[in-house]
Design brief:
The complex is a heterotrimer. By secondary structure, chain B is of the alpha+beta class. Chain B contains 26 helices and 25 strands. Helices cover about 45% and strands about 20% of the residues of chain C. In chain C, strand 3, helix 3 and strand 4 form a beta-alpha-beta unit. In chain C, helix 2 runs parallel beside helix 3 and helix 3 runs parallel beside helix 4. Chain C is globular, with a radius of gyration of 13 Å. The chains are: A mainly beta, B alpha+beta, C alpha/beta.
Chain lengths: ~140, ~850, ~120
């Protein structure tokens, strides 16, 4: 299946192409969301729509450090206007065998795959969605 | 018929053991590595064991597995919850289940491990805040060796349903059915039920399935031909539900599909069906086209006596703009000349045996929305999805070119749903897909009928969205124009001005098209009033006037629950018992008046009862005793202000919490909804004379007036409707009461809240004078410290999409002319959350 | 001709039980899959008349698999096998195009009733 491959720092991730609406350049500044969880970078205006942008690093509980805002990967999850802040997008690649990821299992991660000799962490769009909603419901 | 589960026992033991061992391994790995790498697979193991054990009827194992599943799921949501104690508990549970499986393997009953279950249950409750859910387990008689012998009758044979033991093949002849049950063929019990003659519809899979399953020869089919064949999947009759595991419960619509099929042939296409739209009796009371109906006042006597003393006169005075509204309504009720999509009223019932009626209803909803536009749905979709469907009954109206046959066809393949009726619906008087007047002359009283066209509601929503974005784009253009060189500006500005005017005009037209009569929601009230009154053993006359007045659909939809709550409040708490009324020299029947009026750009809805009235002193003392208000502050409140205390969470003078009140929509929620759509709520009351709730509502919701303020680097919008004023003061010089600074305003001192702290946005420490915005809060006025006032703006409000709608304290978002998204704050909720 | 069925569940126990139910109802079980990935592959290969789909499975959930199957073949008939408490997941599956659902633990007749209804055999 074809995946959009992108990076957070040096780590490579993949999301099924069908789950990605588009990739955009982030605005100069995000509007902060009152009382939002830390992982929420803010909202941005995408052609009149208000999109919530999440820092993938925080969502996946990766080591601390701000993501240089390179690209926003917009998810195509129904009406949820959700975007992921990532370092850069590499391209679209076919990812075949996805195996269980050693040592980093969260609902947001489907597994790992090999791509051109390198490892890619394959994300689960529904798991991502659920993880974002969980951030909000638990922060109350 | 139950399945012979014994054949799966070996597989169950080996596979469950595998899962449980893997579960144990995952746990150990989890503990050793301190990571939660295995949480997902743990969940699947527990889930699988639950499913298998429940299918086998091993309740003790299924329940433990269910609890483990709950706990792992909670960890999955938040890995911070995983601690050593929990790992210990889960390991114990895994070991216990292994022991239970071993017991089963040795032909013993699994231990019910009550102590462990208590521990697991408590942990579930503390982690999820919810009591553990019940575990459903198949009714399988404990796998006694002797039970397995009787499977000679067919592959799906015996298993002995819930203790009755023997396979009933052959005994079901009493049903007089075709005698060939399908694969789902009955056991002995099915046959018995069939004898009553009503089981026919239920057992229907018998004959239908006959061809497909030659192996089956049970006699239990009970295809009683006398019953309505359209009963689908209903629990047949006696016996079926009492003894699960027996076949007659959920048959398929088998024997006589014939009674449904004639309908399939009747479809005359849209043209002919348009003429067949016979008046629908249900709506008869409010047909607004009759001239003497004047303002459409509807008098509903709620018990048969003395309807005559209802105040018809009120109806005459209530609606100030009858001509305009009525002419539109006249258009609405006139026969529609050419409609592509005919409207159908559909009544359905979800089978009482359905385990998850919510999902079932959702499936029906999905099928029907594929067919056309759902214009009415009762219960509402959210209720349906939650499975709150009284008696399984669903009513809806559907606009579709597919016709009656199409509707039947769409639902034909859905199990557990009975289509009770599909009838042409009369469009008037409640027209949700709004009638769009053709521009100009359309409002003339005479020839409107031929000049209207029906529009799908989604299309209207789309228009509004798009016009909203046009407005944003225009504002953006104007911003861009400001940085152009002086000499090129006028031409652009002129163009932008013209564009702005056109877009604004278009917006107004779209809003007009979205206007929908209040009757859409007030039509529900008589029935609700009757139900509430009956439960309270009161007698009530409900009088509704002005229901033809129109409001934006979006506001209307929001108001439905609040109106119902207010009505409930009037009848439940406002009206006295008949004997008390007699003592107060009032008639025995209470009266509730719902009057809708139009006043310039507002719609006013009054709900008034002639009951006992509210006691301001009681409200004050209730608020004081709950610590919501100081005694001094309470003493200063006027009566009218005191009545508003009833809108604070937790304050109510009603001592009795009946099942009628207290359903989650409190007065605080009513007030919030009204304010969120840009309206206000007032309460007037006189002891012994009654109470009146007044809702003042804007005609449209999409455009709101904001005061923009800056905090740190962020901009927020405050609804002007809630802003009392703004002032400047030196924050350091304010007097304080404990931690709270107090701002002098008028002749009172207002508590000061720092907006940066309220919204969690960093802002530099400020010295010297700064602006304060004075706003109405739930319990009096408050002052918000901000960094800068940016001015007022009229903006198009956008609702919050997931996940933003989960945050408290936001009422919407908008995009400014600069392109910047700005949140609109719900200050009372920010203060209370 | 007997209708052809694909059974998807990560537990062999469940697959066997479901297979037996279908056999007893006169259906032909033409394939089985133990996870969502396999399910999509098998579906494309076998083009069954009907697929029963577990929801919680490794690698790819039943919902995602359903979505992909429907995308590949909009006329696919997929019936979700769910447990109580998974209502919202089932609704998601319906949104994704699932035709109907059954609730575990189920009885043979319930399964066949739903299946025959969905296939329009009654």
């Amino acid at each position: 299946m074809r995946h959009v491959i992108f990076r957070v720092e040096k780590e490579r991730y993949g999301l099924p192409l069908s789950a990605v609406r588009e990739v955009v350049v982030p605005p100069e500044r995000f509007t902060r969301v009152p009382r939002a969880p830390l992982a929420i970078t803010g909202v941005m205006n995408l052609r009149g729509r208000v999109v919530t942008v999440v820092e993938l690093r925080q969502l996946l509980s990766l080591p601390e450090g701000p993501t240089p805002p390179g690209r926003v990967v917009l998810l195509d999850r129904g009406r949820r206007d959700l975007g992921l802040l990532v370092t850069d997008v590499d391209g679209i690649e076919a990812v075949e065998r996805v195996s269980t990821a050693p040592g980093k299992m969260t609902p947001a991660i489907r597994g790992v795959a090999r791509l051109g000799g390198l490892g890619v962490t394959v994300l689960d769009p529904e798991g991502l969605d659920a993880a974002v909603v969980a951030l909000f419901t638990h922060s109350k | 018929m139950t399945m012979d589960m014994s054949r799966y026992l070996g597989l169950f033991i080996s596979e469950a053991t595998d899962h449980l061992e893997a579960l144990g391994r995952d746990l150990v790995e989890l503990e050793r590595e301190g990571s939660s790498s295995a949480v997902d697979s743990m969940f699947r193991h527990a889930h699988s064991v639950k499913g298998m054990a429940s299918s086998m009827g091993f309740e003790p194992i299924a329940i433990v597995a269910h609890r483990v599943e709950d706990l792992v799921d909670a960890v999955r949501q938040d890995r911070g919850r995983l601690d050593r104690d929990l790992v210990d508990l889960l390991l114990t549970a895994a070991d216990t289940m292994l022991a239970q499986v071993r017991a089963v393997a040795e032909g013993k009953q699994p231990d019910d491990s009550a102590a462990l279950l208590t521990q697991l249950g408590q942990r579930v409750t503390t982690m999820t805040g919810q009591a553990p859910a019940a575990t459903r387990v198949a009714k399988v008689t404990a796998l006694k060796p002797e039970g397995g012998g009787s499977d000679g009758t067919g592959s799906d044979g015996p298993g002995g349903g819930s203790g009755s033991g023997s396979d009933g093949s052959g005994t079901g002849g009493g049903a007089g059915g075709s005698g060939t049950a399908g694969a789902a063929g009955g056991s002995g019990t099915a046959g018995a039920a069939g004898g009553s003659g009503t089981a026919g519809a239920a057992g229907g899979s018998g004959p239908a399935g006959a061809g497909a399953s030659p192996a089956s020869t049970h006699g239990g089919g009970a295809a009683g031909s006398g019953t309505r064949s359209s009963v689908v999947g209903g629990s047949g009759a006696a016996g079926g539900s009492a003894s699960p595991g027996v076949a007659n419960g959920t048959g398929v619509d088998g024997a006589g599909t014939s009674s449904a099929s004639p309908n399939l042939l009747m479809n005359g296409g849209p043209g002919t069906s348009a003429t067949s739209s016979a008046p629908n009796g249900a709506h008869g009371t409010s047909a607004p086209s009759s001239p003497d109906g004047a303002t459409g006042g509807v008098v509903v006597p709620l018990s048969s006596r003395r309807a005559s003393d209802a105040p018809g006169a009120d109806a005459g005075t209530a609606a100030p703009t009858p001509d305009l509204a009525n002419s539109l309504k006249a258009a609405a009720s006139a026969p529609l000349p050419e409609t592509l999509a005919q409207r159908w009223a559909v009544r359905l019932r979800i089978a009482p045996t359905c385990q998850v009626p919510g999902v079932r209803a959702f499936l029906v909803h999905k099928r029907l929305t594929n067919l056309g536009t759902l214009v009415e749905l009762r219960p509402a979709l959210e209720e349906l999805k939650a499975g709150r469907i009284p008696d399984g009954n669903i009513q809806l109206e559907l606009e579709t070119p597919a016709g009656e046959a199409g509707i039947h066809a769409a639902l034909k393949n859905v199990a557990e749903v009975e289509v009770i009726s599909v009838k042409p619906a009369v469009a008037a008087p409640v027209v949700q897909p709004t009638l769009v007047p053709v521009p100009d002359g359309a409002r003339a009283p005479a020839d409107t009928a031929s000049r209207t066209v029906r529009v799908r509601t989604e299309l209207l929503d789309y228009f509004l969205d798009t016009v909203g974005e046009l407005m944003l784009a225009t504002a953006r253009l104007r911003e861009v124009g400001k940085v152009l060189p002086e000499n090129t500006r006028p031409a652009l500005e002129e163009g932008v001005y013209r564009l702005h005017t056109l877009v604004k005009d278009l917006h107004d037209k779209v809003m007009t098209a979205r206007m929908t009569p209040l009757s859409l929601i007030t039509d529900r009230l008589p029935r609700a009033a009757r139900d509430i009154a009956r439960r309270k053993e009161r007698e009530v006359d409900l009088v509704i006037t002005g229901a033809e007045i129109e409001l934006d659909r979006a506001i209307l939809e929001e108001l439905s629950d609040p109106l119902l709550h207010l009505l409930r409040n009037c009848i439940d708490h406002g009206l006295e018992a008949p004997e008390d009324r007699a003592a107060a020299k009032k008639g025995p029947r209470g009266r509730v008046l719902v009057a809708v009026k139009r006043a310039r750009d507002r719609v006013i809805i009054e709900l008034e009862d002639d009951g006992r009235g509210m006691d301001p002193a009681k409200l004050k003392s209730a608020a004081v005793s709950r610590g919501l208000l100081s005694a001094e502050a309470a003493a200063r409140l006027t009566d009218r202000e005191a009545f508003m205390l009833s809108c604070l969470p937790g304050v109510s003078t009603a001592k009795d919490i009946t099942d009628i009140s207290g359903r989650g929509v409190g007065m605080d929620a009513v007030k919030r909804v009204v304010e969120n759509v840009g309206g206000t709520l007032e309460i007037d009351s006189e002891r012994g004379r009654g109470t009146r709730f007044t809702l003042r509502l804007p005609l449209t919701v999409a455009v709101v007036h904001l005061l923009l303020v800056e905090v740190g680097e962020e901009v927020f919008g405050l609804p002007i409707a809630k802003v009392v004023g703004a002032t400047e003061a030196d924050g350091e010089s304010l007097s304080r009461s404990r931690e709270t600074a107090l701002l002098p305003h008028g002749n009172s001192l207002l508590p000061v809240h720092s907006l940066d702290a309220l919204v969690g946005v960093p802002a530099p420490q400020r010295l010297g004078a700064r602006p304060f915005v004075v706003m109405d809060g739930d319990s009096g006025r408050v002052a918000l410290a901000v960094d800068r006032l940016l001015g007022q703006e009229e903006v198009v409000l956008k609702p919050l999409s997931r996940p933003l709608d989960l945050l408290p304290g936001l009422s919407g978002v908008t995009i400014l002319g600069s392109g910047r998204p700005v949140f609109i704050l719900d200050v009372p909720r920010l203060l209370s959350a | 001709m007997a209708k052809r069925v694909l059974v998807v569940d990560d537990a062999i126990f469940m697959r066997n039980m479901i297979k037996d139910i279908f056999a007893s109802g006169g259906f032909e079980v033409v394939g089985e899959a133990a996870n969502g990935l396999e399910a999509v592959e098998k579906y494309k290969e076998l083009k069954p008349d009907l697929t029963t789909m577990d929801i919680v499975m490794p690698f790819k959930s039943g919902i995602e698999a359903t979505r992909e199957i429907i995308k590949a073949d909009s006329s696919a008939v997929v019936i979700m096998c769910s447990a109580l408490g998974q209502e919202s997941l089932v609704m998601e599956a319906i949104e994704a195009g699932a035709s109907d659902f059954i609730v575990k633990p189920f009885r043979a007749e319930d399964v066949l009733a739903v299946v025959k209804k969905v296939l329009g055999e009654t």
